[in-house]
Design brief:
alpha+beta; flat; 16 helices; binds zinc ion
């Protein structure tokens, strides 16, 4: 977009209690509600990147996700499978990217997915297509030949054939976003979204505590206000009030906003990963973990999880109040009346990791969106391009070549099938706030002596088994705290394996 373009703005009708200086509710249509829903599709790493910027408010921290993200930025790529891995983690893609293309205000600056072929190989034989331009083909050249993806190249398996037929084929590349142009919604201060009708209006009336008549006004939002809103979505219980009325409000977690509601204790772990942790006995705090590439991949993959998928895994109870409310609002929507497609509700209930961004042995139950296995590069001209990448060659005049997508993580030349980010046989250390580093004794020692100031007699080393429950628990703690290991593994310390080499979990005493 040209820099001279007038910045996009949207207006929002808000009803304010002047006496208490708070937003009672807002009334909005497609422009604003599509933006709110798009927040749920953002990968956690993207959110950490966006909220680290200035808007009307200062940069803010997103639990442990911010420290994990920043530490990946500082990681030497030689500890990862390829240079592309680092790029993937710092710019994770959004599996719903095309639905967000036409947002009135899109604050996500992740580069849209592009498809590249190697021009030498494309016209000669079996060929690969990648979504990363800087990758090297097996012939040694870079993938630089740009292909046009057909509209349905990457659609959710939940999108039915009728959806596709209704909107035409390759020629039409417009996506309508999430809610219908005609729909109208009531948004509460904590970002619960409800379709506007008699029922919701009467509920509002019931909840008005103030005697005086609330005042209605219209506020104009530009990308700064939308970024404010994303920040307060993560850390506030009153996101509209904080972002629209009290801009000086402190960007800190309140202590009460995070509660561990999980009371299960002493569970037997079926986990297969083992990590060593160094604890302070007196503070019951995990200072560091020493981990291998399997656990490192598990942590790194957090950056690629869509926010809404994490909410599903945590059953709408992440502890981040406004995110929980926004996610749970989806159940208020009527698929046929409010949404542009009947399948959108299902798609939001099963938000996926972008293709090739997942890792092997993913413990957290979030699926990866897959490309169709049969792909072709096609053309509508007899001689030259443009060339289209499609799963349905019948839409085009001529098939140039059958192609297949390649996993961008391992270098193609090495011919490996390993599907992870972290370099194998590498030891990493993870701090309590999930910042990651290659393992170094010097770093452990200097942190213990200078930063953490834990005396030797207070230290204890333990080995913990990590399975699905432990991984989910760390993920949950990472959303709203800065001690994901200590809080996330608190209930699991009895899975401690006392002796090295022991293969069975201790079930009692
Ligand atoms: Zn090539």
């Amino acid at each position: 977009m040209a820099s001279t373009a007038i910045p996009e703005q949207i207006s929002l009708r808000v009803v304010v209690d002047k006496e208490q200086n708070r937003v009672l509710y807002a009334e909005a249509g497609k422009d604003f509600v599509d933006i709110l829903l798009s927040f749920l599709t953002l990968p956690l790493g993207t959110i950490a990147r966006l909220v680290s910027r200035d808007s009307n408010t200062k940069p803010c921290r997103f639990g442990c996700i911010s420290s994990l993200y920043e530490s990946v930025g500082n990681l030497d790529p030689k500890y990862l499978n390829s240079e592309t891995c680092k790029q993937m983690l710092l710019q994770p893609r959004n599996s719903m990217e095309r639905y967000n293309q036409n947002l009135k205000l899109n604050i996500d600056d992740t580069e849209p997915t592009k498809y590249y072929a190697c021009i030498d190989c494309l016209f000669q034989g079996p060929s690969l297509v990648t979504t990363f331009k800087n990758m090297k083909c097996k012939c040694g050249r870079n993938f630089t030949f740009l292909l046009n993806p057909c509209k349905w190249l990457l659609c959710s398996p939940l999108l039915s054939g009728s959806d596709k037929n209704a909107s035409g084929d390759a020629g039409d590349n417009t996506w309508e976003g999430y809610v219908k142009e005609t729909a109208s919604f009531i948004i509460s201060d904590d970002l619960s979204v409800t379709p506007a009708n008699f029922n919701t209006t009467l509920c509002l009336l019931k909840n008005l505590r103030s005697e005086c008549l609330p005042e209605e006004s219209t506020v104009v939002l530009s990308s700064n206000e939308i970024l404010d809103l994303l920040k307060y979505l993560l850390i506030s219980k009153t996101a509209l009030t904080d972002s629209l009325l009290r801009k000086e409000h402190s960007l800190m977690y309140s202590d009460t906003s995070f509660k561990i509601t999980d009371e299960r204790q002493d569970r037997e772990s079926t986990g297969t990963m083992k990590i060593k942790v160094l604890m302070s006995k007196s503070k019951s705090k995990i200072l560091f973990a020493q981990v291998e590439e399997d656990f490192m991949d598990q942590l790194l993959s957090f950056l690629t999880f869509p926010l809404g998928a994490v909410e599903r895994v945590l059953e709408g109870n992440s502890g981040a109040v406004c995110v929980d409310k926004l996610y749970n609002s989806l159940f208020n929507f009527d698929s046929t009346v409010d949404l542009t497609s009947e399948n959108l509700k299902n798609m939001f209930a099963n938000l996926m990791i972008a293709p090739y961004f997942n890792v092997d042995n993913q413990m957290v139950p979030i699926d990866e969106l897959k490309y169709p296995s049969e792909l072709s590069v096609c053309s509508n001209e007899h001689a030259i391009g443009p060339y289209y990448l499609t799963a349905d060659a019948s839409l085009y005049l001529r098939v140039v070549r059958r192609v297949r997508m390649c996993d961008p993580k391992p270098p193609i030349a090495e011919g490996k099938s390993s599907n992870g980010y972290a370099k194998s046989r590498t030891k990493f250390m993870v701090a309590d706030d999930l910042s990651v580093k290659p393992f170094s004794s010097h770093h452990v020692l200097s942190s213990l002596l200078t930063e953490l100031k834990v005396p030797h007699h207070d230290l204890e080393e333990r080995t913990i088994r990590i399975g699905v429950q432990e991984a989910v628990s760390i993920l949950k703690a990472s959303m709203v705290s800065t001690s994901a290991l200590t809080i996330g593994l608190k209930e699991f310390l009895s899975n401690n394996i006392k002796e090295e080499g022991e293969t069975k979990t201790r079930s009692s005493g």
